[in-house]
Specification:
The complex is a heterotrimer of chains A (about 240), B (about 280) and C (about 280).
Chain A (H helix, E strand, L loop, with lengths): L1 H5 L9 H4 L2 H17 L3 H17 L3 H24 L5 H24 L2 H10 L4 H30 L9 H6 L2 H24 L17 H23 L3
Chain B lengths: L7 E12 L7 E9 L3 E5 L6 H8 L2 H5 L2 E9 L2 E2 L5 H4 L3 E4 L12 H11 L4 H14 L15 H13 L5 E5 L7 H18 L2 E5 L3 H4 L5 E6 L2 E6 L1 H5 L13 H11 L11 H10 L1
Parallel strand pairs in B: 3-8, 3-9, 6-7, 7-8
Antiparallel strand pairs in B: 1-2, 1-4, 4-5, 9-10
Helix pairs in contact in B: 4-5, 4-6, 6-7
Chain C lengths: L6 E8 L9 E8 L4 E5 L6 H5 L10 E6 L2 E2 L5 H7 E4 L12 H11 L4 H14 L15 H13 L5 E5 L7 H16 L3 E5 L3 H7 L2 E6 L2 E7 H4 L3 H6 L6 H8 L12 H15 L3
The chains are: A mainly alpha (about 240), B alpha/beta (about 280), C alpha/beta (about 280).
Chain lengths: ~240, ~280, ~280
């Protein structure tokens, strides 16, 4: 799970996909995830997944995407088993449900892999959300890997003092998370203070911010949006017209 | 230097501060004046109030941190008790110990631009200043990189650059090299020195690596239990034999000086660098 | 039969599962029982990764790490930690108890010390680290230096055979550093082994006779401190600076001082000798 979180880390690359306007990427993400959510059949879901993989290749980010998929694979398998066990005898539907999960994850992670948090933020600003809110979001994204690392260090430090997380009955095990969660929470609160301090020290909060980066929609964005819409249409068509 | 030598930038009169919920004052009765162009080294044992003092300089105390504030602090003409940090940050740049918690964005460029946007500058002015610091700090190769991909030394360099782009009069650094390896620490300190010497930037630095700062700084302030216990030219302060017992690290070259003195070898002045030690020995 | 090495690292390669860059690339060395060794190197050289192998938090991707000839792959972290005490760099990564006292007691409980013994050890630790007056205080309210001491106490308390400290001098004033160095000597004199990772070249120079230099996942030097820390090419490669005493020695070398001096007392003695020799002329 931590690994999957780490793969969300945005890496700046100079590809067509990265350069697309975040708004068109948001649109496409919404369209595709809608398609995925509606669809009950294997073929359209596989098409979406393949589409994501092609985009990831274009964005030179295939490995990151695969890492996310690998990370959630056990969950997909779990969903599959659950569906089988709960008596739904439609094997195809069970398969479709797990692929649905994978493709949904692919659609969303592709967005975050190829869109810098700042671009996403800028898009949301342009769509009317106040800067303070979007900055909070960027911060959250930015500090996920740091949080994951802190958690790991804390676990290491407590294990070094003899804490055995995997020993004892259920209640004992739950209690063993206290030595891990307390330092983590205290540390992150302290970190949030340090961050706030640093933000204020860089003149944040004056209220009369200017914006250096401007979003610009180009013909590429139109092409991308149209492509996504066509894909959605294809998904819906297959979903209605084909048996699987 | 371009500036008038005795312009007072920071003046604290009997400043005390107690954090909300704390039982003791973190700093007590601090009075000091800092002039334009000075390079001030602040030292003292951990918990002595150095960080609290730094927070007064850009108004984080008493505006951001709640507590009991006494006395008067004037920074670049502003009464800090009445001026929010976002205004003071135009005059006082602040660099913290942990590079990680002061760099937020996905590229170095965006990091530098952030502060300038907060000042509400127009795009052409932002572009101009961005170019300027990129040139000065030689950041071109790092510009599109993510700050977290950089080494600790590079990260602090970016943090400093992001401050300098805002053209402050004073740069306050709170243990900027604590997490850096020796060579990176030296690089960062050299950069700060350059800013002070070439641009007349006033520098206040809290630093444990006294041996790196002592030869550069013009003034040294020693704190203990919230008070200033020594304040003067570096060489004069380092001549006090009781610094180590007060919990202040002194450069090894100063230790050598005192040990020689104990053996009746009296050098004329306290050396601050190995070269000075040599000169002093040759003189004798 | 000769006594087994306290720590034996053999051709150790390590990379995290989800990455293909090796952090450690063929590290080998051994540390005897009763030795006091410093590991130095630039940030990112792999020092912390290396010491996490000593108590099995990380297991070698290739090669082996043996603690008293026991392969770390065959033991759990808890079993290894009982013998190898690892003190992390940042104390804030471990405090969670309501009081300083309980914080020290944590490891003792985990390692099944009985209550009377726990009480005795805790008092001893509090006294030794000058934390007695904070016994009932929250660890979070201590100053940076005090926290660091508490972190060391919370590991030293269960008396491991090997003590490994990551950057123990950060945030410590000279008095505490001096106490730390006395403590390390005391631990070693009890036949225990001490390994310290540090950037503090002066501290390393004054307190260690052996130093291992790590650079980019490889050991580039392992030897007597006065040889290693006065070797410019090694220092440059590992982005380290010589101790200031050494810089003084270098600057005085053309008037007859040895170049391999790293300790204050040694250089003072050498200077006195030099002055005596010059006195007649």
């Amino acid at each position: 799970m931590l690994k999957a979180l780490k793969s969300f880390k945005y890496i700046e690359k100079s590809t067509i996909i990265h350069k697309l306007d975040p708004r068109s990427k948001i649109l496409s993400t919404i369209l595709l995830s809608l398609g995925v959510l509606v669809s009950q059949k294997i073929t359209p879901l596989i098409i979406v997944t393949i589409f994501c993989i092609i985009l990831a290749i274009t964005a030179k980010s295939l490995r990151q995407l695969l890492r996310v998929i690998r990370g959630i694979a056990p969950w997909a398998a779990f969903i599959f088993l659950l569906n089988c066990l709960t008596g739904s005898d439609k094997l195809m539907l069970s398969i479709a449900m797990s692929i649905k999960f994978v493709s949904l994850a692919a659609v969303f992670s592709l967005f975050f892999i190829t869109t810098s948090p700042e671009d996403f933020m800028l898009a949301l600003n342009n769509l009317g959300m106040p800067y303070e809110y979007t900055l909070a979001f960027t911060m959250a994204m930015r500090f996920v890997p740091s949080l994951a690392r802190d958690l790991q260090t804390i676990i290491d430090a407590q294990r070094s003092r003899g804490l055995e997380l995997d020993k004892g009955n259920f209640i004992e095990r739950v209690r063993k998370y206290i030595p891990i969660l307390v330092p983590l929470i205290v540390y992150e609160i302290r970190r949030s203070f340090m961050i706030a301090e640093a933000l204020e020290s860089r003149a944040f909060g004056s209220g009369k911010r200017s914006s250096f980066y401007k979003l610009k929609i180009t013909y590429r964005d139109f092409v991308f949006a149209i492509l996504s819409s066509i894909l959605l249409a294809v998904i819906l068509f297959i979903d209605i017209a084909l048996p699987w | 230097m371009v500036s008038k030598p005795d312009r007072v930038l920071i003046e604290l009169r009997k400043v005390s501060f107690k954090y909300k919920g704390a039982t003791e004052y973190a700093i007590r009765d601090i009075s000091l004046r800092i002039h334009e162009g000075e390079f001030v080294l602040v030292v003292g044992p951990s918990g002595c109030g150095k960080t609290t003092l730094c927070r007064v300089f850009n108004g984080l105390i008493p505006n951001f941190y709640e507590g009991e504030f006494k006395g008067k602090a004037v920074v670049c003409g502003y009464d800090v008790a009445k001026t929010p940090t976002y205004i003071l940050s135009k005059y006082v740049g602040m660099v913290f110990q942990e590079p990680e918690n002061q760099l937020f964005f996905s590229t170095v460029e965006k990091e530098i631009v952030f502060g300038l946007e907060n000042l509400g500058l127009p795009s052409n002015e932002i572009a101009k200043r961005l170019n300027e610091v990129v040139e000065y700090f030689k950041l071109k190769p790092l510009l599109k990189k993510a700050p977290y991909e950089l080494s600790g030394g590079e990260q602090q360099k970016v943090a400093i650059a992001a401050c300098i782009a805002m053209r402050p009069k004073v740069l306050v650094l709170d243990e900027p090299t604590a997490n850096l390896d020796p060579m990176s620490a030296k690089d960062v300190i050299d950069l700060v020195k350059k800013l002070n010497r070439e641009r007349g930037l006033t520098v206040i630095i809290v630093e444990h690596r006294v041996e790196l700062i002592a030869p550069i700084a013009t003034r040294m302030i020693v704190m203990n239990r919230g008070r200033i216990v020594r304040d003067g030219p570096v060489r004069k302060v380092l001549s006090c034999e009781d610094l180590v017992s007060k919990g202040v690290a002194v450069p090894k070259v100063v230790e050598i000086y005192f040990k020689l003195k104990a053996k009746n070898i009296n050098l004329r002045t306290v050396p601050l660098t190995p070269e000075e030690l040599k000169q002093e020995l040759l003189r004798g | 039969m000769p006594e087994p090495d306290a720590i034996q690292v053999k051709d150790l390669y390590f990379r995290y599962e989800d990455s293909d860059t090796y952090i450690l690339k063929g590290v080998s060395f051994s540390i005897e029982r009763g030795e006091k060794v410093a590991i130095v190197g630039e940030n990112g050289a792999g020092k912390t990764t290396l010491i996490k192998h000593f108590n099995g938090l990380l297991k070698p991707t290739k090669g082996s790490v043996r603690i008293f000839s026991i392969d770390t792959k065959t033991k759990t972290v808890a079993e290894l930690s009982r013998r190898v005490g690892l003190v992390f760099q940042n104390p804030d990564h471990q405090f969670f108890e309501e009081t300083v006292e309980k914080e020290i007691e944590f490891a003792l409980k985990n390692f099944n010390f009985d209550e009377s013994e726990r009480k005795r050890i805790v008092s001893e630790m509090l006294r030794f680290f000058e934390l007695e007056k904070y016994r009932d205080r929250s660890p979070f309210l201590l100053s940076g230096g005090e926290k660091k001491r508490l972190a060391i106490a919370s590991v030293l308390c269960y008396n491991p055979d090997i003590l490994v400290l990551d950057e123990p001098t950060v945030g410590q004033d000279p008095i505490q550093k001096e106490k730390l160095s006395v403590l390390l000597d005391k631990i070693v004199s009890m036949g225990k082994t001490v390994v310290v990772v540090s950037h503090d070249m002066d501290f390393v120079a004054e307190n260690f006779s052996r130093v291992i230099v790590l650079s980019k996942g490889v050991v580039i030097a392992d030897g007597k401190t006065e040889n290693v820390l006065t070797n410019e090419s090694i220092l440059n490669k590992a982005r380290l600076l010589p101790p200031q005493v050494t810089l003084c020695a270098w600057s005085l070398s053309n008037i007859g001082l040895r170049r391999d001096i790293i300790r204050v007392d040694d250089i003072v003695e050498e200077i006195l000798l030099l002055l005596q020799r010059c006195a007649p002329c």
